[in-house]
Amino acid sequence: MGQAIIRESTADDIKTLVVLCKEYFNQSPYNTPHYTYDEVHTHDYIRRCVINPHSKFFSVVLDNKIVGLMCIVLGQINFQLAIRAYLEYIYVLPEYRTNDLFKEMIEVAEQTANDYQCIDLLIGDVGFNVDAFTKKMKTMGFDTKAVICRKAL
Hints:
The protein is of the alpha+beta class.
């Protein structure tokens, strides 16, 4: 394997990113009868993130192939005149996952948040392996500030 390149996604990337989002969905805790994967909606979501100045979609490229993605959304803080960055998606195909690549992706997310003068970066795990994820993020300078609970309706 060569060196991964993490770059801003382009319109040409969208079809591949939609496929990767489906892989993410298939491996996620959301892959239940309660949720469905909608390819058209996902395509539109990614397209809007690529062109929206309040979000950044990134493609992870290895050996000229998109093998991962990351989406950062900027939002206002409700109690202070400031913005924060939310890492909405972070995904790499299983066969390309390494600790170094994950760390590099988080560093890109942090740099993006800094570029927009965000006061913090929020990232979470939807249930893949919460304990391991929390431990890994603490080694990268993050702390646990919230709990996300979900109830299917």
